[in-house]
Amino acid sequence: MVDLNITMLWEVVNFLVLMYLLKRFLYKPVMNMLDSRRQKIKGDLEQARRQKEEAHQLKEKHQSELKEARQKAQQIIDEAEGRGKERAQEIITEAREEAERIKERNLAEIEQARQEAADELRQEVASISMMVASKFLREKLDEKEHQELIQKYIEDLEAARLGEAK
Amino acid sequence: MDPGPQAVTYLFGNEALPITNTLIWAWVVCIVIIIGARMATREMKLVPEGLQNFAEMTVELIYEQIEAMMPGEGKRMLPFIATIFIFIGLSNLVGFIPGVVNPTADLNTTLGLGLVVFLVSHYEGMKKHGVFGYLKGFGEPVIILFPLNVVGELAKPISHSFRLFGNMVGGGIIIMLIYSAAPWVLPVPLHAWFDLFVGAVQALIFGMIAIAYIAVCRD
Predict the structure, then answer these.
(1) CB B123 within 8 A of CB B213
(2) Distance of CA A112 to CAs A122, A161, B63, Å?
(3) In chain A, what residues touch B37 (CB-CB under 8 Å)?
(4) Judged by CB atoms within 8 Å, which residues 52-71 of B form the interface with A?
(5) Which value does ipTM take for this structure?
């Protein structure tokens, strides 16, 4: 049952051959695979970390750009608003001035027309007076009657509101 | 009926060169292991599947055992230690198949491996401390203990190999006895116990002790 013989040598040779073959077919490829997997996972994690960082930076950049753009837009709007208000003010002022000018011109025209009307009237009155006077002279009216006649005529004119007496 | 290894034939017809059934089964075990390893690693994928997964798991488990006791030496010692684990493990388990004799139920196998472990452990010790420095270690703590230490060292391969051999052959003897007494009733659970459980435990013990011996010599 227990006899030591040459089998021991065969078993040891067996073992050494098995060790050599397993080293070639099992340990080396498996350890290489484990190593390469470790490297890959490490690399992937590193890459993921880097990409995350990049994305973060990009996001921050975008946000700052957006903020800047918003500020710029606000600035433009403010400027435009300011300019618009200014322009409106200008327009209003101009319009007011124009209105004032038109009004003054109209007033002057009215004044002139009135003046002309008054002058015309005066001449008319004078000519009528002369006419009446000559008529009365022809009809030998006395001074007093003459005077009354003129006065009456003028009053009539005033009553008709043809102008202010000067 | 002799429960030990049986000589099947004799090499060159020489009585001194027997080829035993344990040796033949050891060859079969080796071939199965090599074929399995080849199949597992033929198409290595980054995402492991099936046999590759099993091979990676086994190798990594053994690697971690070595690293735990000899930090930094895992890669170098892996072929030696892992071959012990795998060969002894499968040798212990094949007895589960009826008609198969455990290669480890032969003292030639276990003592052979025990002596290899013995030689490797002392070689590692001398490599680490130098021949003289290593031999000086036997004189610690006092020089008088030198013979005692040497005897202790020589006892290591014997206890190492006889433990495995005794367990395997003992289980085989008990199962053989049960077969002749009650062939239809008891063998199944006993087979499970002696061939699967005891076999797995003894393979683990043999491998761990091999690591421990080497680690102790390197201390």
Answers:
(1) no
(2) 15, 18, 123
(3) 21-22, 25-26
(4) 52, 55-56, 59-60, 63
(5) 0.85
Token pair, residue B25, equals 């089964």
Q: Which is nearest to A24 in space by CA: B47, B103, B27, B83?
A: B83
| B134 CB neighbour count, 10 Å cutoff | 18
10-residue mean pLDDT series, chain A (166 residues): 80 91 89 90 95 96 96 96 94 94 93 91 86 74 74 78 54
Length of chain A: 166
Residue of B14, B107, B168 to mutate, interface with A, max A Cβ within 10 Å: B107
